[in-house]
Every structure is written in C-alpha cells, then in structure tokens.
Amino acid sequence: MKEAPRFLFAPMEGLTYAAFRTLHHELFPGASEYFTPFIAPDREGSFKKKYLKELTAGVPSVPQLLVNSAEAFNATALKLYDLGFREINLNTGCPSGTVYAKHKGAGMLRDLNTLDQILDSVCEQAQQLGMRISVKTRMGDHSTAEFPDILEVFNRYPLSRLIVHARCRDDFYQGPPDLQGFRDAAGRCLCPLVFNGSIASPGSLDRLLNTVTVDAVMIGRGAVADPALFRELSGGPPLSSEELSVFLDRLTARWLADGLGPAFTLERMKALWFYMKDLFPDDKSQIKAILKAKSLEEYRPAVSSLLCSSAPQPLR
C-alpha cells in the first residue's frame, strides 16, 4: 500500500459529538481534523446553544454549516470567526430527505445558479475576514455524470478544499463509489481535493490510491465502526477487545457526565453499535442482545460478554 494520506473524520449526526471527538482523539490519534455534525442556523445566523459546546471540543475541528442562503451562512460565519475559527465547511452533500426538500445539503445541487450566487457572496465575505471556505459535496443529484457541471461552479471560487463523496444523492450510501468519475474530476479541480466514500480497510484505501492522488481522505462510517481505523490505515495494529472496552466505558461515562440521561445515553451507544456490529460478524446473537437492551444495566453485561468471548475483526 502507498503512503497513507492525511485523514479527516467526517461528521456523523447523532454520534460524533464533542465527547466522542475528544475521547477518540485521546485514545486513537490519527485524524488530522474532525468535522462537526452540521449546524443548521436560521437566516439571521442564530443557532441552538448546544452547538457552542460542540464548537469548543478542544480537538482540531472544522464547523460545518447546513444552509440554503448566503445570509444564513455569512451571519453564522461572523459568529464563528469571533470564536476563533478560520475555516467553515459548507455542506452540499447531505442526502436526507428532509434536508433535501429544504434545498439544503445535496438539495443545493438541484439549482447550480443559486449555488453559484451563494458561493459568490460567501467567498466575498470570507476573503474580507481572512477566513477559509471549504465544501463537502456529492457528485450529483441523480447521477455522478452531473459532476463536471457542478465542479465548474466550484472552480470559480478560491475554496480551501473540496471534499467529494463519490456518489450522487440518489445513491445515498449504496453501491460502490464512482472512482473513475472522481479520477476524471481530479484533473480539473482547481483546489485541494479530498475523497470521501466507503473507505473502511487498508484494501479499500489501496484501491483508491492506485486510482488517484488526493490531498486527504475523509472517513465517517468506517471510523465510527472501527475507532482504530486510522491507525490500521497507517500500518498500525488492529483494534483490540481491551481498547474497545475502554473506549465504550469512557464514552458512556462522558455522555452521562454531560447530563445526558441514561435512556438517551443507551440510545446513542446502541446507535454506535449499529455500525460496530460489523466488527463481530460471527456473534449475531450477542450483538442482538446489545441492540435489544432496555437499560444500561442490561447493556453493560451484554457488551462485556461479547468482548470477553470475541475479538473485533478488521472491516473488509
């Protein structure tokens, strides 16, 4: 495998909150930066107070905005600038139906003229402030063949980097990423290019790097499923049962200490196990016991039983 690129931790709504990011950075260093779960401000740039804690997590973080107007982006950017941030990421890739219907996320790709106008205003203010603007996007709405036209819009602006999930919106997270389409775009992109999409093993990273040269790789689902993934991709050892046990115990404790009730903490841990279950492909009955736990008192022994009897298997 070629030398590993820089790794960025993608935002995972409902999971990669501040407690997760700080603990992951402490126990499994390897990500250069963590992108925050998106902030969805109103048109005046106001957002819920809970986001302030997310923005001051103490690890290298980039706030991501989910908006459909330049006014909302610029008003929020001024507040984030005052908090010390010098890069903001615009999300034009979220495929969620509710987000899409509001012309946010991947919904912005439906109207490239409006996207162009938003970027024009956003980049003008950013230049005045000395702030960097990056974009996370999909390769199209209904087809990745739309990406040349989308890239033409992005190329008009001095983006600090373009993070491309190599699928169209209709694909959501199904099917293989369009590596050939991404490679074709790489030769025309005028800013640093970051790949995103189904990197979960050294083999999948090797296939990417044999296809195209990238500035960095962003990983979300794979890194949530396997906290040690960045280490493995850099040639280090795989995740051990002992490491995973410590990570899960401390994450549960941190969420409880943050004031999250036991029931909500349990739901977050079970949401995490929705991804981590792939580390234990031969332990379906024990995974089922974890996912069906009705309390932390049921959850903890179910996890302990699994980790005492099985070792996590590297993702394929």
Helix content: 40-55%
Overall number of strands: 9
Distance between the termini: 15 Å
Strand order of the largest sheet: 3-2-1-9-8-7-6-5-4
Strand content: 5-15%
Radius of gyration: 20 Å
Helix-strand category: alpha/beta
Mean pLDDT: 95
Properties at a glance:
nine-stranded parallel beta sheet; about 325 residues; 14 helices
What does this structure look like?
It is a single chain. This protein has helices at residues 18-27, 50-55, 70-82, 97-101, 112-129, 147-154, 179-186, 202-209, 221-225, 229-233, 241-257, 262-276, 284-291, 296-309, and strands at 6-9, 31-35, 61-62, 64-65, 87-92, 132-138, 162-165, 193-196, 216-219. It has a 9-stranded parallel sheet with strand order 3-2-1-9-8-7-6-5-4. It is of the alpha/beta class. The chain has 14 helices and 9 strands. Strand 4, helix 3 and strand 5 form a beta-alpha-beta unit. The model has no long low-confidence stretch (mean pLDDT 95).
Secondary structure: elements and pairs:
Blueprint: E1 6-9, H1 18-27, E2 31-35, H2 50-55, E3 61-62, E4 64-65, H3 70-82, E5 87-92, H4 97-101, H5 112-129, E6 132-138, H6 147-154, E7 162-165, H7 179-186, E8 193-196, H8 202-209, E9 216-219, H9 221-225, H10 229-233, H11 241-257, H12 262-276, H13 284-291, H14 296-309
Parallel strand pairs: 1-2, 1-9, 2-3, 4-5, 5-6, 6-7, 7-8, 8-9
Helix pairs in contact: 1-11, 3-5, 5-6, 11-12, 11-14, 13-14
Brief sketch in words of this structure:
With 316 residues, this protein is an alpha/beta fold. It is 44% helix and 12% strand. It has a nine-stranded parallel sheet with strand order 3-2-1-9-8-7-6-5-4.
